[in-house]
Write a structure and sequence with these properties.
By secondary structure, the protein is an alpha/beta fold. Helix content is 33%, strand content 17%.
Length: 367
């Protein structure tokens, strides 16, 4: 198969979807690999490394799309890429369709096959979402701590406090991969941490494994309102696979919070779990509503591309190799990989995406 790896052009997205090691493995399996020039430079991979691995460099993103049967990316195509996508072309990347009607319509119109990292399943997990969720959870605390500083608009609290001064209070909504990683970092920085979730089995598990300065809380409306009013940093870490994130914190809740509190909405690429959230970028990461600082960057791991690229490609490469040998056969052999098929030849094949926009759903093998 002819595999293309374009340079990411989303705002401040510096990751690359295939490393030189990955390209070498693809070439060894008999595939042709085309990489856009400088696609890997921000992640620490020079063009010469790709050439040494057997890949061919192309000058423009249009060249890559034009010659490739399979496009491997990190983030969803943006508007200027829509016309480049061809019928029957396989796109393997993060899509998060349920929060973006325009993207959903464009990919449906394209006639392409869109296989989304975030809905691939395996052994009860989302194996291609986990590595970036780990990075995003850890970075959520790092960025939250930064924007709690007074020069950044925050209330001026040090996350870990000092002797004689209480540490900041961190509320994490959602006890999954993002939430547990955020809790570990916040606890390590000395904060007073609360993880809220509606799953009692998960709360029991977290209670047994987390450091002593992490407490668990059942996420009832009453408990959430009380906890929001006394938190300094709130991290939204809720995920409904393939679907739009539920709005768990309303604007009315914001009015109960102290001015200068920071909220980090890690769920923003799925629409966000705060009513007042809208996507931001690394170049303009925050805005203020009712005195509350909102950090809603939709590609948080893109700020640390050297770490993120390696973590992501460690997980995606085996799937990319399987797809390159024939995506239909690969999906028939692996139901978990088939779960990643969101749009196939103009049909929506992921039920949560169809439900998000009131579109017809069709199983992928009938599309």
């Amino acid at each position: 198969m002819i595999i293309g790896v374009p340079k990411e052009i989303k705002n401040n997205e510096s990751r690359v979807a295939v490393t030189p090691a990955g390209a070498k493995e693809m070439v060894k399996r008999g595939h042709q690999v085309f990489i856009q020039q400088s696609a890997g430079s921000a992640s620490g991979f020079a063009d010469a490394e790709y050439e040494a691995a057997g890949a061919t460099l192309l000058p423009t993103i249009g060249d890559v799309y034009a010659c490739s049967e399979m496009i491997v990316k990190v983030k969803e195509p943006i508007a200027e890429e829509y016309p480049l996508v061809r019928p029957e072309q396989l796109l393997f990347t993060y899509f998060h369709f349920a929060s973006d009607r325009e993207l959903t319509q464009a990919m449906t119109d394209s006639g392409a096959i869109c296989l989304a990292y975030e809905t691939v399943t395996g052994h009860g997990t989302l194996p291609l979402l986990v590595p970036m969720s780990e990075v995003a959870g850890r970075m959520a605390v790092q960025e939250g701590a930064r924007f709690l500083e007074k020069p950044q608009g925050g209330k001026g609290r040090l996350l870990g406090g000092v002797p004689g001064v209480k540490p900041a209070r961190v509320l994490i909504i959602g006890g999954g991969v993002v939430g547990s990683n955020a809790a570990l970092i916040a606890a390590g920085m000395g904060a007073d941490v609360v993880i809220a979730d509606i799953s009692l089995p998960r709360l029991r598990q977290l209670d047994e494994t987390m450091p002593r300065n992490v407490k668990t809380l059942f996420a009832s409306a009453y408990n959430m309102e009380k906890e929001l009013s006394r938190s300094d940093l709130v991290i939204g870490a809720v995920l409904v696979p393939g679907a739009k994130a539920p709005k768990l914190v309303t604007r009315d809740n914001l009015r109960r919070m102290k001015r200068g509190t920071v909220i980090v909405d890690v769920a923003i690429d799925q629409g966000g779990c705060f009513e007042t959230s809208h996507p931001t970028t690394h170049s303009e990461p925050t805005y203020e509503v009712d005195g509350i600082i909102h950090y809603c960057v939709a590609n948080i791991p893109g700020a640390v591309p050297q770490t993120s690229t390696l973590a992501l490609t460690n997980a995606t490469l085996p799937y990319a190799l399987a797809l390159a040998d024939g995506w239909e056969d690969a999906c028939r052999r692996s139901p978990g990989l088939a779960d990643g098929l969101n749009i196939v030849r103009g049909k929506v094949t992921c039920r949560p995406v169809a439900e998000a926009f009131g579109l017809p759903y069709e199983p992928w093998d009938k599309a």
